[in-house]
Structures are given as structure tokens and as C-alpha cells.
Amino acid sequence: MSKNKMQKNIILIIIIQLILLLDTYAKPEKLNDKVVLSGYIKDASNGELLIGANIYFKELKTGTISNLYGFYSFSVDPGVYEVDFAYMGYKTISKQLKITQDMDLDIELEEETESIQEVVVLSKKPDANVRDPQMSVQKLQSKDVKAVPALMGEVDVIKVLQLMPGVQATSEGSSGFSVRGGNPDQNLVLLDEAIVYNAGHMLGFFSVFNNDAIKDVKLYKGDIPASSGGRLSSLVDVRMNDGNNKKIEGKGGIGLISSRLTLEGPIIKNKTSFIVSGRRTYADLFLPIVTDEEAQDSRLHFYDLNIKLKHVINNHNRLYFSTYMGRDVFKDVNSQIDYGNQTFTLRWNHVYNPKLFSNLTFVGSKYDYELGTSEETSEFTWKSRLRDFSLKLDYNYYLNPNNTISFGFQSISHRINPGTAQGKGEESMFSKVEVPDSRGLEHGVYIANSQKIGARLNVRYGLRFSGLQNVGEVTVYEFDENYEAINELHYKSGDIFNSYWGWEPRISMSYILNPTTSIKSSYSKTRQYIHLASNSTSTTPLDVWFMSSPNVKPQICDQFSAGLFRNFADHTIESSIELFYKDMKNTIDFKDHPDLLLNDKMEGEIRTGKSWAYGAEFLIKFNLEKFNGWVGYTWSKSWRKIPEINEGRKYLSPYSHDHDISLVLNHKINNRYQVGLNWVYFTGSPYTAPNGRMFVGGDIVPIYSARNEERMPDYHRMDVSFTIKNKKKEGRRWEGEWNFSVYNLYGRKNAWSIFFEQDDKDPYKATAQKTYLFQFVPSVTYNFKF
Fold first, then answer.
1. Cα 635–636–641 angle (5° rounding)?
2. What is the pLDDT of residues 6-48, one digit of tens each?
3. Shared-domain flag, residues 105 and 226
4. Counting runs of H as helices and runs of E as strands, what totals does the chain give?
5. Torsion (CA) 369, 158, 124, 52 in degrees, nearest 10
6. What CATH number is associated with residue 484?
7. Is the pLDDT of residue 68 over 70?
8. Are the beta carbons of 403 and 372 closer than 8 angstroms?
9. How many CA atoms lie less than 13 Å away from 680 in the CB half-sphere?
10. I need a labelling partner for 238 at 20 to 30 A (CA). Which of 22, 469, 477, 760 fits?
11. What is the membrane topology noted in the UniProt record heading this document (predicted)?
12. Which are the contacts of 230, defined by CB distance < 8 A and separation ≥ 6?
């Protein structure tokens, strides 16, 4: 399908839906005095608030869902109603309620302990795939991830998201990912609303998210809510568990390379709760017993710690505090590198009245890394850091059964230190090199509405206004047409010397054709003010973040999506076809051989232009009696056109994969035995290869072909797992299970990287060499709960 034809199809669907919208909206609605049913939906066993639980009024054939903090509100005429409270994987509660005035009602749902819902993307009512106007969204819970085979037994929510249509890993085993052809830095990753700038451990082979500490994950691939902004491609919203407020309990796991332990419980029963979750690899703990003296002095590990506290002041006020600390350490006799993230989140939920809910959030986020060597004359240390503080206020106003209005604002203070390097010791040949800090203030204000119009049409629309202010003290360089610095401008501390502002409209809608089928469409504009400079397609600890400035404009994306959604077999099988088109302005790329590290004139290495991506995504999810999982396929293209690169001709983005297939299958044999399988295939990544070498200024340098003209070999692998649960004993709290898994079952040699090695005999000749990782990796993990 051509790009132009796809655009026409999407626009046609949007026009049809707008006509239906105008026709339906023109019909007047009778106004009545209303009363409000509101409250919280909780897990009966631990008091955990349930996100996206369904509240359904049978007589009205409509209802609502709980928000991100488990709160719900719904206006009705006074009367008697049969109301269902439901959440996938939990027993539905039906209550007959006589509602004559505003009523507070908290509901506790019991989990179906023997439910087979272990892998499928859950936590929604069966027909939500058809009715929800929001498209391009995937949701996971902690239990959704457990049965998916994982590298070295470390279950990982990011790796599961990479199995969704439109999402590709940037390289073998990496936690970095591309969404619909976008760069990895175009994904906004949040942990309890705090930005995580590097979501990977061990150079990206594991993510920073400990599955035992996670409650809920949402991936927005295009239709990002108006309440969020700052990235072009996607939003990954990760929410931590609140902690059991009824009883002390724990869980954990012991694997071949790491172990984890989580404890949670009440400090004051039903009022104040905590959760503490830690994880650490321990290969380095065995190094002191090896015979190699150099190995004894080495370090190789990562750890992370999640802590969260929740306090219920009363039914109208709740306080939350959460923090994350994680670090990676690599050290041998000659060098070392360590890096990590730290975040904290302080939140106050307040219910003004049954119709108005607010959440005030103060957030801090820090990412830093340190690189050092211990070679005598070349001994040095290199440090870099990034720090954010953010204030955010969000409101939900439940106007009436057909309209839920959201509005609020956010301000973020950015401070980036690109790097400071200096020699260590008297014999070091290195002098101090420091790239000055950059500071900025990023703002956003928004309003949005979720509206039901008649029985068939659901619409969400909103408007966000965002901006960035560059703040001194800083030196800004002016560049000529050859990108050479020709002037310096100095700004004092606190001076706002440059600003960017812009509107970001968002709209999505669904029109229900029949109880099992709907068509949906969406449009969104997003702006990105902070960017990543990297010499690799995969994210690495040494990547450099930088802000838009007088020399670098914000990136802007207009995305159009349209799709057909159809359920089968009483909603146990869901299917969807989505088309998307992304038009991006001020796209950032770098010249050949860019100097990105410790360069205070790095903006001279940047080249900007336009880019676009388009494709089709197919998804079939099934939730049958003994089998569940999904099959996904994506066809897509991602292009760039930058005047100073590739002689001004268009070229493929490094994240353009023509074909991407994923299969996830879970079979529950019985209540003790379970088998999991996934298979992945995608077209190899584009890259730029040298097609010759020449002698320049006394050195032999490569001559490159057209940008991204070559491709890596196609990638595919199969993973399997087998889980055995221990027999349950009456009255015994301890529960255990063994998980056996194999990553890359048939030992496929997938290229992790390609480098070119100079021939010893002919210096003008270079040979491509491939690096391979993870050819058949078995693992075993013992998981427990008490």
C-alpha cells in the first residue's frame, strides 16, 4: 500500500466519523437532576486500588471505569439500579442499589485464584476492545508478564511490550525500543510519574522494572493523553504497587544470575501501608574464590530498590510516597563504569466532592554515569548527570454520565551536565575538560473531555499547550552555513534567553457498528524539547541528553491513525487492524563521524530535516479456556530527508523494519503445570557501510555508501518456558514454583553488531565482522510467595 493511498484511507475514515459525530451531536439530550455514585475499587485481599475497573448499570446499559487511583464517579437519575463491579481476573460483584442522593461506595473484589488469565493483556471489560475510543494502547499487569519466557529467567515488562505490534527492540536483548519507526529517545518512560532516562540494566539486557513491584503498565503508541507530553512516539506509564494494607506478605525469586525479594504490609491496618522490593545480581560475589587475581578485583553487578508508602487520611484524602534507586557497576583492573537512576514521587489525592477528583504530584528524577580508567599516564574519570524536578496538578471532573473532563498543568526543571573529565593522580596526562551545564523549564497545560454521544459514538478530545524556556548561566554558540562556530553569546544565571511554545491537539473516536465491531480513528500533535545524542542505534550508558536551544528546534510530530476492531467467540478473541501515518518536522540526525562526547559545540554536529513513517499493524489476542496469548504483525516504513545528509536524498531511518512478527502462546495444562512459548521475527536494521577507503592527511579513512543503504541480517528466535507449581498444603502460606526456560531455543546466530576490520596485508580493504550474543541460553528460577 502506497503512502498516499494510506493517507487517503485514514482521512476518509475520519471524515465518515466526523459526519456521524455531527449528526448524533445535533440531537438534544433531556436534562434531569442527577445523583452521584462514587468511591474506590480495591483488591479484597490487600487493599490495592484497581485501575480501570468497570462499573456497569444494567438498566442504563452503560457505566464508567475507575481512574489511575481506583476512584470512580457516575451520575444517574434517582432510582433503583442493578450495578456490576468487575475487573478481569476478579469475581464480579452485583449489587442492587437504591440511589436517592449522592452515595459513597467502596467495593472490594476478590481475585479468582485459579484463573487461567496469566498472559493476555488484561484488566478491562470484554468488549473494551470495541467500545473504548482510545486506540494504539496496550495494558499489562505484573501477572501478564510471568509466563512469557525471559532471558536468564528475569521476567521483564519492557521485553513483553517489545512483542506488541509497532514496537521493536533496538538490538538483540536490549531494553531500548522503537515505536512506529521513532527513535528510542522519543519514548517517555514514567515510573510513578517520574521520568526514567535509562530504562536498562547491564547495557540494556534487563530493564530497571522489577516485576514484583509493578502493578500496572500502559503503552500508548500514538494516542497519548493530553495530560502527557514531551515525546513524539510513545508513553510508557508504569505504576508501582501501593502495598498490602491488610496483612504482611512477601514474594521473591532465586535465579541463576539474580535474586529478588519483596515485602509489603500495613503499618496501620487499612490506613497506612508499605512495600519494599529489592533485586541484585550476584555473579561478582563468586569472583573472590577464582584463581585469576585480576578477576578477583573485578566487579560486575546491578541492583535496584523500590520503596512505596501509602497513607489514607480519610476517604477524601490519600498520600503516596515512592522512590526508586538502581545502579550498575562494571569494573576490572584497567577501567570501570557505573551508572544509575534515582527517582522519587510525592502525591496527594483529594476528592473535593463526588464529581471532582484531583492529584497533586511533586517528582524528582536523576540519571548519572561515571567512566574511569586506571592506566597510569592515561588515568582519568568522566562524570555526567541529568536532574529533573517537576510539579504536576491533574483534575478529573465527572460532569455527567456522558462527559468526563480532565484538566491540569505541569512544570519541569531540567538541568543537564553533559560531562566533566579530568586526570587522576600526578602521572596522568589528562587535563580537566568540562562541558557547562544547561538548564531549562518545560511547561504544559491541558484540558480534555471523554464523551459518549448516543449508544454508538465515543469521543475523546483535548488540547495541550506546551513550551520550553532556556535558562542561563550558559554560553551559546552561533554557527555559519558550514556549522563552524563564529560567535559566542553569554547569558547570566537565571536569564531566560530563548523560548518555544506550541499547541498540541488530540482527538480519538470510536463508532460501534454492532456489539462486536467498531471503527476508530485518532489524530495527535506532539512536541519534544529534550533529545538524545548517540553514536549507536541502541541506547547506551554514555548517551548524551540535550535540550532544544536557539540552534536546535523542538521536534514536532503529527500522527494519524485509523483502524477496524472486531471481537469473536463471545469476546474471547479480539482482533484489530490499525493504519498509521506520522509526519515529523525538525528531525535530528548527525553528520558522518560526529564528535558527541565532551563537546561544548556539539550542536554543530547536528543536522535537521523532516521524516515520516507509515504502516499497518495486525493483532489477534485470544483468551480461551486453556490457551491464551496473541499474534502480531507489523508492516512499516520510516524515512528521513535532511539536506546535508545523503546528498539531500531520502534515506531509511535506522529503526525502519519492513516486517515484524510476534507470537506469544501460553497453555495451562492444569493447576500445576504451564507451558509458554514466543517466537519473534523482524527485518534487519538499516546501517551505513564503508564501500572503500582512501588516504587523507596521512591517515586511511573509510568512504561510506549512501546513509543506511545496507541491512543487518533478519532476526528471529524462539523462547520456551515450563512452570511447575508446588502442591498447595492447607493452612500453609508458603507457595512456590519452578520456572525452566530457554532463550533462543534453536540457537539462531543473530547479529548484535557489525564492525569493519582493516586487512593486515591490504590497508585499503576492510572486512565486515559480526558480533553474536545469546545462542541458546537455558535458565531456572524458583519463585515463592508467603
1. 165
2. 665 665 665 565 555 555 544 444 445 789 999 999 999 888 8
3. no
4. 5, 51
5. 0
6. 2.40.170.20
7. yes
8. no
9. 29
10. 469
11. Multi-pass membrane protein
12. 188, 412, 442, 444, 466, 527, 528, 529, 530
In the 8-state DSSP scheme, what is residue 683?
P
Structure letter (DSSP) for residue 151: G
Contact 677, 665 (CB under 8 A): yes
Provide the β-strand partners of residue 350: 317, 358
Same domain, 388 and 306: yes
Confidence of residue 131 (pLDDT cuts 50, 70, 90): confident
Paired strand residues for 3:
none
Determine the structural domain holding residue 71 and report its residue range. Answer: 32-115
pLDDT at residue 210 in the model: 93
Cα 553 from chain centroid?
A: 24
What is the length of the chain? 786
Q: Residue 19: enclosing H or E segment and its boundaries?
A: helix 3-25
Same structural domain for residues 152 and 45?
Answer: no
449, HSE (Cβ side, Cα atoms, 13 Å): 10
Angle among Cα 122, 125, 129 to the nearest 5 degrees reads 80
Distance CA 185, CA 205 (A): 17
Residues 111 and 141 in one domain: no
pLDDT at 327 over 80: yes
The pLDDT tens digits of the residues spanning 528-562 come to 999 998 877 666 667 889 999 999 999 999 999 99
* 236: amino acid identity, one letter: V
CA distance linking residue 424 with residue 380, whole number of Å: 5
- Separation between Cα atoms, residue 576 and residue 581, nearest integer Å: 17
Please state the φ and ψ torsions of residue 412, each to the nearest 5 degrees. -125, 130
Nine cell digits for residue 107: 467495593
- How wide is the angle at C-alpha 522 spanned by C-alphas 516 and 523, nearest 5°? 175
SS3 759: coil
Q: Does residue 472 sit in helix, strand or coil?
A: coil
Domain boundary among 115, 149, 173: 115
* Average confidence (pLDDT) over 166-182: 89
Q: Measuring CA to CA, which residue among 312, 317, 400 is closest to residue 360?
A: 317
Residue 154 near residue 741 (C-beta atoms within 8 A): no
All cell numbers assigned to 782? 524458583
